[in-house]
């Protein structure tokens, strides 16, 4: 045991609590639409922001002082000790990690691999002792200077090779720990200027890289989902995985639309000019919905601020789409969110997750009530009811349609979309 969270008790559900270290909405055992709330939400803590982030931003350096900060395996194990103590306090069922979060950077690939294997065994022992499960693992292919020009899309084949070898070790670690998904986030898979960029070549490299990931996962018997997390830009000017629609086109080009699904983040959706529910609905309609990172951006900032969710109506709309997609299978709700750099105390880390889990629970309950109420889907179905009788239009041709319009004297009047009335219905639930 460490003393980092000394004096902080395990968080409990108490609907009447007035403190900020109790769940008032997140009751893991409450049954909603035939499923326990814990099984609906499948909460996960992100290792990187919770335990590896030093509190910097684009205009200032480290503000957090953590006893495990450093580049030794002993400190990496201390970090794991603290992480599992926090997991026990929160009682969430999953966690997520990048390789660079759990092991210090070595001198070369061999040392990185040895350190990853050592810490994987250490974490595995903690999981066997009753810790949470692994929702997904991933490789950090963006922080180290070797990846300044990308990983899969790098103009240097040696960087491509180093990245591919690193992903292989991370899939191995994820598989060994029983991870239910493997995520690829291309933080620098894009360009800063077209003056030195071959778009066609880089896109083909990215496609082959992803095919290699799918092939290797199958080879070792990893039966979890392979997920891509789209983002439009930042730190690059443009990324090849801009949004769900862009990624789907990419998957189709490389024959991967049946192999890869989406890990979607609200903050990234906002940067792409979309709402979170738009990206979720698009993934649902294309059959590639997988998992979510539940964090938000500050709408008055132009960058990815990774804040914990605090807006129940927004969250309710998101979980409405999740539920309409059939809910999570291997995916879940990962908090890819970090404290504000002024929130220095250990208790801030607990309180942030407690509040976020409660916001999500409240949003889930509202979303479930909207679905069970049925008004929104009834209105949607009524709006498209004409197509149930005239679906043959889509298999016809322009000449036949023109003849029908003329013969039947079709001259349609517009019909109200009733947007404000539908928004009023939603607001009754949230």
Tally of strands: 12
Report the order of strands and helices. Answer: EEHEHHEHHEHEEHEEHEHHEHEHHHHH
Alpha carbon gap, first and last residue: 41 Å
List low-pLDDT spans.
Answer: none
How would you describe what is shown here?
By secondary structure, this protein is an alpha/beta fold. It folds into two domains: 31-373, Alpha-Beta Barrel (TIM Barrel); 378-429, no CATH class. It is built from 16 helices and twelve strands. It has helices at 37-41, 47-52, 73-90, 99-102, 109-128, 157-176, 199-219, 244-253, 266-271, 276-286, 312-324, 346-373, 375-383, 385-389, 398-408, 419-429; strands at residues 31-32, 35-36, 43-46, 94-98, 133-138, 181-184, 190-191, 225-228, 238-239, 260-265, 289-293, 333-335. Its EC number is 5.3.1.5. Belongs to the xylose isomerase family. It catalyses: alpha-D-xylose = alpha-D-xylulofuranose.
List the helices and strands and how they pair.
Layout: E1 31-32, E2 35-36, H1 37-41, E3 43-46, H2 47-52, H3 73-90, E4 94-98, H4 99-102, H5 109-128, E5 133-138, H6 157-176, E6 181-184, E7 190-191, H7 199-219, E8 225-228, E9 238-239, H8 244-253, E10 260-265, H9 266-271, H10 276-286, E11 289-293, H11 312-324, E12 333-335, H12 346-373, H13 375-383, H14 385-389, H15 398-408, H16 419-429
Parallel strand pairs: 3-4, 3-12, 4-5, 5-6, 6-8, 8-10, 10-11, 11-12
Antiparallel strand pairs: 1-2, 7-9
Helix pairs in contact: 3-5, 5-6, 6-7, 10-11, 11-12
EC number: 5.3.1.5
Keywords: Carbohydrate metabolism, Cytoplasm, Isomerase, Magnesium, Metal-binding, Xylose metabolism
Binding site for Mg(2+) 1: 229, 265, 293, 336
């Amino acid at each position: 045991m460490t003393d980092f969270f000394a004096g902080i008790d395990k968080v409990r559900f108490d609907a009447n609590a007035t403190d900020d270290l109790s769940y008032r909405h997140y009751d893991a055992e409450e049954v909603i639409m035939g499923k326990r709330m814990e099984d609906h939400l499948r909460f996960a803590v992100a290792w990187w922001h919770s335990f590896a982030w030093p509190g910097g931003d684009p205009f200032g350096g480290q503000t957090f002082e953590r006893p495990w900060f450093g580049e030794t395996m002993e400190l990496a194990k201390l970090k794991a000790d603290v992480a599992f103590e926090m997991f026990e306090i929160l009682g969430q069922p999953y966690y997520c990690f990048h390789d660079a979060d759990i092991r210090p950077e070595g001198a070369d690939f061999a040392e990185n691999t040895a350190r990853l294997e050592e810490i994987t065994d250490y974490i595995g022992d903690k999981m066997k002792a009753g810790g949470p499960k692994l929702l997904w693992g991933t490789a950090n292919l963006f922080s180290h200077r070797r990846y300044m020009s990308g990983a899969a899309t790098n103009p240097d084949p040696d960087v491509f090779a180093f990245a591919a070898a690193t992903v292989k070790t991370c899939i191995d670690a994820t598989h060994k720990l029983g991870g239910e998904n493997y995520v690829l986030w291309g933080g620098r898979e894009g360009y800063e200027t077209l003056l030195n960029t071959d778009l066609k070549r880089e896109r083909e490299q990215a496609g082959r890289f992803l095919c290699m990931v799918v092939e290797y996962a199958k080879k070792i018997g990893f039966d979890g989902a392979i997920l891509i997390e789209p983002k439009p830009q930042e730190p690059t000017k443009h990324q090849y995985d801009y949004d769900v629609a862009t990624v789907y086109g990419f998957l189709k080009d490389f024959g991967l639309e049946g192999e890869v699904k989406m890990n979607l983040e609200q903050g990234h959706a906002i940067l792409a000019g979309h709402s979170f529910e738009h990206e979720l609905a698009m993934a649902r309609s294309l059959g590639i919905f997988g998992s979510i990172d539940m964090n938000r951006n500050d709408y008055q900032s132009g960058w990815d601020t990774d804040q914990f969710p605090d807006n129940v109506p927004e969250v309710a709309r998101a979980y409405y789409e999740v539920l309409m997609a059939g809910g999570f299978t291997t995916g879940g709700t990962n908090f890819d969110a970090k404290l504000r750099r002024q929130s220095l105390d250990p208790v801030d880390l607990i309180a942030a997750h407690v509040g976020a889990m409660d916001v999500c629970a409240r949003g889930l309950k509202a979303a479930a009530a909207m679905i069970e109420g049925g008004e929104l889907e009834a209105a949607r179905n009524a709006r498209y009811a004409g197509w149930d009788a005239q679906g043959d239009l889509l298999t016809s041709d322009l000449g036949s349609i023109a003849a029908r319009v003329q013969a039947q004297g079709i001259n349609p009047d517009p019909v109200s979309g009733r947007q404000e009335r539908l928004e009023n219905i939603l607001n009754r639930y949230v």
